[in-house]
Design a protein that fits this description.
mainly beta
Length: about 425
């Protein structure tokens, strides 16, 4: 008998969802010279156009994009201002020329054209109006576009025992982030806004800092409850600059304003860190995989500094013999901390299992699954990275595990299971 009940719902990449991002054409180093830069050449060409030519450019290039992008003119004018700071001649541009200059140095980017996977799920902050037995959910996903750049996108939906998973149709408009306050000396915080976003599905976390240049990967959402009862939505993710990775923390405010901050300490360079949803004996707790093999438990008095730790769960069975890792934040249930795990086995197959930690002392592993609760199936094993099922965070509602997961680094699927059924197979 299968442990998980699988939904027929799949979330697939949608190339029609795009954001506006900067475009910066420059000469190769071998062709750079002391004369006119490409930026200066393009600006000069625009300034030489008459009003009729500018109007034609605007009609041909800009007008069709208004249906796909809210506040498009504001975005193009902001980009024009970026250009004017390095090309003083642009200061004399007409209002029409400013839009055209901004458009020449901008591009549409389809942030989930190649993949939409590795989801994470938490209860939505608003549960008003939900029928009895139904929970509103908030979902984050990793999208991949041109250049294999990873971004984070969001969805909302519902789940009930009767109807299963329902995911709301995302807005056809997507809003990329702008930096509202960059880090200052002594303060590593970068505050960003998705200006004009009216719905979580419109907010897209596209790389905005040097540490994220090549991607924001695998956000593990966590509904964190502090000792005073304050609820905060945070998440750990991997920032990738094209060469090195590091763990960073995201805090969200109504999902149109965000705060990003790097984690510090000896384990902060590791991928796949996941925060416990509350303090343990007054300390923050995190799961990590700093040795690329085992799941570790790390404790800290500071949310942003993580050192040391102790090995918690190591490879033991055939399906996890290569390495272990978490599939999101631990979930608190009556019996302890339920941890959904992943293991890598033969032919780099990624499967998912579970473990139970002691509630008072999570360094104690009470039990774990000897066999996976989810393997790559014959019908769902093909994709960009074959033979992978992976999740960045599940949740429990009314003693039912709600498990979103990515398949083959390509698309997302959903399953559910009674918590008691999982506990029954733990050993």
């Amino acid at each position: 008998m299968a442990l998980l009940k699988h939904s027929t719902l799949h979330l697939s990449p949608d190339a029609s969802r795009t954001v506006i991002r900067p475009f910066d054409p420059q000469y190769p180093d071998a062709f750079a010279h002391d004369g006119q830069s490409r930026t200066e050449r393009i600006v000069a060409a625009v300034l030489a156009k008459n009003a009729e030519e500018l109007a034609a450019d605007e009609k041909r290039m800009i007008a069709p994009l208004h249906a796909r992008h809210r506040n498009l003119d504001d975005r193009l004018l902001a980009r024009y201002c970026d250009v004017a700071r390095v090309v003083p001649a642009a200061d004399g541009a007409s209002d029409q020329a400013k839009l055209v200059i901004g458009a020449y140095f901008s591009e549409e980017y389809s942030f989930e054209a190649a993949a939409l996977f590795n989801p994470s799920m938490v209860p939505h902050p608003r549960q008003d109006g939900m029928p009895e037995g139904t929970v509103r959910i908030l979902l984050s996903l990793r999208g991949i576009g041109e250049g294999h750049i990873s971004s984070v996108t969001f969805r909302t939906g519902r789940w009930s025992k009767r109807d299963g998973f329902t995911i709301d149709r995302p807005s056809h408009q997507a809003v990329s982030p702008v930096i509202s306050a960059a880090a200052v000396p002594g303060d590593d915080v970068t505050r960003i806004q998705c200006v004009g976003s009216r719905d979580p599905s419109e907010s897209v976390l596209f790389p905005v800092t040097d540490s994220q240049r090549q991607g924001i990967e695998d956000l593990r959402l966590c509904q964190f409850v502090d000792d005073d009862g304050t609820v905060d939505h945070v998440g750990t993710y991997t920032a990738f600059d094209g060469r090195a990775t590091r763990s960073e923390l995201l805090r969200g405010f109504n999902y149109d304003e965000f705060e990003m901050r790097p984690l510090n300490g000896s384990v902060a360079a590791a991928k796949g860190m996941a925060l416990f949803p509350r303090r343990i004996d007054g300390r923050y707790a995190m799961l990590g995989r700093q040795d690329n093999e085992s799941i570790w438990l790390i404790l800290s008095d500071d949310l942003y500094t993580w050192d040391g730790g102790e090995k918690l769960i190591s490879p033991k069975f055939g399906w996890d013999l290569c390495q272990m890792g978490n599939c999101g934040s631990p979930i608190e249930i009556d019996e302890g901390w339920l941890v959904i795990t992943h293991g890598v086995g033969l032919m780099r197959n990624y499967s998912m299992g579970a473990a139970l930690l002691d509630k008072q002392d999570p360094s104690k592993v009470l039990a774990r699954t000897a066999e996976p609760i989810l393997r790559p199936s014959a019908k769902e094993r093909d994709g960009y990275v074959p033979n992978v099922v992976y999740s960045c965070g599940a949740m429990v509602h009314d003693r039912t595990l709600l498990l979103p997961y990515g398949i083959a680094d390509n698309f997302a699927a959903f399953a559910s299971c009674e918590v008691d059924d999982i506990l029954a197979v733990l050993r």
